[in-house]
Amino acid sequence: MIYGVLAGITWALETIILGIALSMTPFISTEQAAFLAPFVSTFLHDACSAFWSTLYNGIRRNMKNVWKALKTKSGKFAVIAAVIGGPVGMTGYVLAVNYMGASIGAVASAIFPAIGAVLAYFFLKEKMQWYRWILLLITLLGVYGLSYSPELDMTNFVLGITGALMCAFGWGIEAVILAKCLQDPEVKDEYALQIRQTTSALTYGIIIIPVLKGWHFTIDLFTSNTGWLLPTIAFAALFATVSYLFYYKAIATIGASKAMALNVSYSAWAIVFTVLILKDTSVLKPVTIICALVVIICGILAAADFKELFGRKEKNQ
């Protein structure tokens, strides 16, 4: 459970740092730059994270085991999870942060535990009680309610909420697939992270960036004077890598639903860090706080099984 909480804290820090990078001049200088920013920043983010993962596994002499894990059936499914969680989920997350702000984007995308529970119901045949469906609906209404905070600086709520839904489905599906993959003793959490980040970076570099004709813009970021942009993205990726390590360990030890429920605390931490680090108190509005609490609390409860929790308590007594 500590792994899950630490995953949430470190991901909240990643969110704040990535939000700073997205607000820098190279990503807002032109209309094309603003359009490409979510995709290029995610590519650079996951590429840096793949580097940090390689460094981590290299120091621990795990690279042979990573390659061995990749050859297994579970390893191949981890690649599929990577494509869904990276290019789909992470792009959606960056869209949400870019168009709704770091704190609200984090809260809006925090519905993924509920989405993961629904997906587990359909694909893994896990039970989904009636009250969890109701809590899921309340969670979605709470996300929608975030748009009714006129004091907040949201540049495009529609694109932001679209990104949040992409993120929720991408990360929800990813967690469900990974939960199965990590049951294979040959696919440990740190191996799965290496596969995930490398696959995501390659998918962006080989398919998405060329399709969007964004390579020229990406290369310009390295050849022109962009100040602290690239180091900031690399720093955000470092926190993301640490967060994923904790998150995958939580999935491996306590299961996908519980890990997602704990990891979702990043949305609350993002608001705290927005106030403490960015000195932005615009998020401290009644509507925003209430809707954020609804999303966090109901999102967690929608991923929980009350009967199992209370049943275990009674059994222990």
Structure explained in plain terms:
This protein has 317 residues and is mainly alpha-helical. The chain has 15 helices and no strands. The chain is globular, with a radius of gyration of 19 Å.
Summarize the SSE layout with pairings.
Layout: H1 2-22, H2 31-59, H3 63-70, H4 73-100, H5 102-108, H6 112-123, H7 130-145, H8 157-181, H9 189-211, H10 215-223, H11 229-254, H12 256-263, H13 266-276, H14 286-302, H15 306-316
Name the descriptors.
317 residues, mainly alpha, 79% helix, single chain
Cα Rg: 19 Å
Outline the low-pLDDT stretches.
Answer: none
Major sheet, described briefly?
Answer: none
The proportion of strand residues reads under 5%
Structural classification? mainly alpha
How would you spell out the order of helices and strands? HHHHHHHHHHHHHHH
Count of DSSP helices?
15
pLDDT averaged residue by residue: 84
Shape: globular
Oligomer: single chain
| Residues in helix, % | over 70%
Distance between the ends:
22 Å
Say how many strands there are. 0
Summarize the structure.
With 317 residues, the chain is mainly alpha-helical. It has helices at 2-22, 31-59, 63-70, 73-100, 102-108, 112-123, 130-145, 157-181, 189-211, 215-223, 229-254, 256-263, 266-276, 286-302, 306-316.
